[in-house]
Amino acid sequence: MSTDIKLTVLDQSPVHPHESNPQLANAGQMSIDLARACDALGYHRYWVAEHHNSPQFAGPSPEILITAIASVTQRMRVGSGGVMLSHYSPYKVAEVFNMLAALFPGRIDLGIGRAPGGDALASSALVWPHPPQQASQYPAQAATLKALLEKSIPSDHPWAGLHISPEHDDTAQFWMLGSSGGSAELAGQIGASLALARFISPDHCTPDIFNAYERGWQAAGHNGTPHRLLAIGAFCADTQQDAELLASTAIYRKMMTQVGEKDDLLAPEEVMNRRRQFSTSQEAQYLHILDGYTVGTPDQCLSEIQELAGAFGTDEIAVVTVTHDYSARQQSYRLLRES
């Protein structure tokens, strides 16, 4: 991989239904194993996601996985991609990530998002007995969280007297996640770094979102340079055909999610069997989703990553790889980093 582009892992902790290795019995253990391998491969960061009530993704508590992963890695920054802030108190999140920053100085990132990371049932259960937060409260939550982390709560704020233990000088690097333009200007206004999730909605994820982010940053008068990261779906294999087959699990998962179905991740062979029965419109949808991912040999993936980095004006690309088979997921990350 070209040295001017930093590669990061965004791990959604996918559930691999038929993993036979007893030492990798669940998705959490696989994430720890993959993180250790990616640390050795030279990845820049390792972020874990937050999902609830899902048969496909098994990462409901990023702070626990971050602790486990940071404990077995040496070099990478480790963080959340992201904490779904609508479920939580900014004070509690600040306490947790302040502690993580104390335990692993210079290595902790806090990425937050406004999406629920699950369905309405999970959102209701997470905040019971209170009602779920309204989306309109997110900007205030995000700004308050950042101020708590940086110990910059205004003296006239009701929480000005809050103490966050332990006392230390390190602070988790603060990021905001977005998949379209909704969070970009807010991230700029409050002075957060911005991670743009192209893998969620490639059609609506365009370089001008980063431009809006920088306008918000400049208008707010923040010092320094705003940090930007682009997250893509990528599947790397020895041949184009193998890479496309590897990607089929994620493509079909996205198709089914769009119609409200949440089955286990399907093996590529089963996806191909179902694909033979697709209607013309389903096949067009399948190919459209495939076109939004980075899929191919190491050289092909590297070339597209460089193009995307140039188009979006970033030197850091985060890679999301959701597969049916864990070893194939690990191999994809290895091939991508060694290209």
Give an account of the 3D structure.
With 339 residues, the chain is an alpha/beta fold. Helix 8 (240-258) packs across helix 10 (280-291). The protein has twelve helices and nine strands. The longest helix is centred in the C-terminal third of the chain and has 19 residues, at 240-258. Strands 1-2-3-4-5-6-7-9 form an eight-stranded parallel β-barrel, surrounded by eight helices. The chain has one domain: Luciferase-like domain (TIM Barrel).
Spans of at least 5 consecutive residues whose pLDDT stays below 50 are none
How many domains comprise the coordinates? 1
The CATH topology assignment is TIM Barrel
Within the largest sheet, what's the order of strands?
1-2-3-4-5-6-7-9
Q: Compute the gyration radius: what is it?
A: 20 Å
Instruction: Give the helices and strands as they follow along the chain.
Output: EHEHEHEHHEHEHEHHHEHEH
List the helices and strands and how they pair.
Elements: E1 6-11, H1 27-41, E2 45-48, H2 62-72, E3 77-84, H3 90-103, E4 108-113, H4 120-127, H5 138-149, E5 173-178, H6 184-190, E6 193-197, H7 208-220, E7 228-236, H8 240-258, H9 268-275, H10 280-291, E8 294-296, H11 298-312, E9 316-320, H12 326-338
Parallel strand pairs: 1-2, 1-9, 2-3, 3-4, 4-5, 5-6, 6-7, 7-8, 7-9
Helix pairs in contact: 1-2, 1-12, 3-5, 6-7, 8-9, 8-10
Short description:
The protein is of the alpha/beta class and about 350 residues long. The protein has a single domain, classed as Alpha-Beta Barrel (TIM Barrel), CATH 3.20.20.30. The protein is about 45% helix and about 15% strand.
